[in-house]
């Protein structure tokens, strides 16, 4: 079997060295570039694993400014590529500068083809290992559902549930806090189902005023109300043959709950202002962040509708309860936004990793995504820090300890009581509802004087 071609880019402006280097790397597909523009064009085209880069390039062949600028741009464009800079003899200073900028290694002229080949092969091996590693990491986080990134057992369980119900027609209720991925799951469920060639029509029951929601869902006939100038189909009819996603079902007004229940039981609708029963064949997926059972107990959600919409319930846990998912999501969003904004940020500082793991993520995946996106755009260093992510540091977190909060409240109350009682200990103790000895102990604790 033929070994795969390994693209290698040689950036060198000396024609003599170009022809020497063109043939000396066995097993590599060598391309040549003699200046920055050509080099970047080749990197874009070939995506080489390794680049050898002469630092003395035109228009500054006697210096290093052009070579270093080319290096910086190659790393920006292809952060995974290993760049070996070729320097003049005895030019350690610039070689070290290049390493600081992100070069993988350096090699001093005069060129010895055998030694340079060894350096290039070693770089290529590392490049391949890292690529393989990334591929493996990616396959570990790939779940059976498109677009869903997760490694925690809780989320893999939810993915499996989607897999099992996708091809049935059962009504699915997806529960979870805001930003946990309910809509993402609804879309994945639709795509996996036999109705995927039909449409997925989504409607947010909380975002549309009650007066409009009925006609949005069921459509209306011409003349049904002022402004109904032509017959209009509703979301339910639009979803015929596909899936209807009712987001925030817990906010569906009670009058419409009865109408939806009727549709679920009989699978026919009547447009607003119409008399005709229209059969509709679709699958319903609902989602809510509300606790429907307590809404039933409070009389705001119909129990019969609840049983209809929850033939299968899938719970998406909040991010703080998913073991290991925050880090996996953070890395995946970093890759995504590096690509999107053409940045080359290489991971997170150790403090940032700890902060990501220990933060509560009240906005769940939506919050982690937007924090990483903002940080990728704004960051000035090569790694994202706690400050870039605007997450609480260890110091902030300990300042919020319950004991500190209690102490602060106690201190404030004691000061107020002493001020009101004008330093009279008996009165202050009465105001606080404690004994005088306890008040004395508090004064000692906070190093306060009665007056
Ligand atoms: N496991 C995940 N992997 C990748 N992206 C995710 C994941 N979960 C959620 N997201 C992304 O997070 C964002 C919020 O997700 P989504 O809108 O599905 O949440 P939701 O639970 O429906 O929120 P809400 O209740 O506020 O409508 C979307 O951009 C979505 O793509």
Automatic annotation (TrEMBL):
Annotated organism of origin: Allochromatium palmeri
Chain positions found as 4-aspartylphosphate: 54
Name used for this protein in its record: PEP-CTERM-box response regulator transcription factor
Keywords in alphabetical order: ATP-binding, Nucleotide-binding, Phosphoprotein, Transcription, Transcription regulation
Domain Response regulatory, chain residue ranges per copy: 7-124
Pfam families given in the database record: AAA_lid_14 (PF25601), HTH_8 (PF02954), Response_reg (PF00072), Sigma54_activat (PF00158)
Domain Sigma-54 factor interaction: 148-377
Gene3D superfamilies: 1.10.8.60, 3.40.50.2300, Homeodomain-like, P-loop containing nucleotide triphosphate hydrolases
Domain of life from the UniProt record: Bacteria
Record InterPro entries: AAA+_ATPase, AAA_lid_NorR, CheY-like_superfamily, Homeodomain-like_sf, HTH_Fis, P-loop_NTPase, PEP-CTERM_resp_reg, Sig_transdc_resp-reg_receiver
PANTHER family, per database record: ALGINATE BIOSYNTHESIS TRANSCRIPTIONAL REGULATORY PROTEIN ALGB (PTHR32071:SF113), TRANSCRIPTIONAL REGULATORY PROTEIN (PTHR32071)
GO biological process, one term: phosphorelay signal transduction system
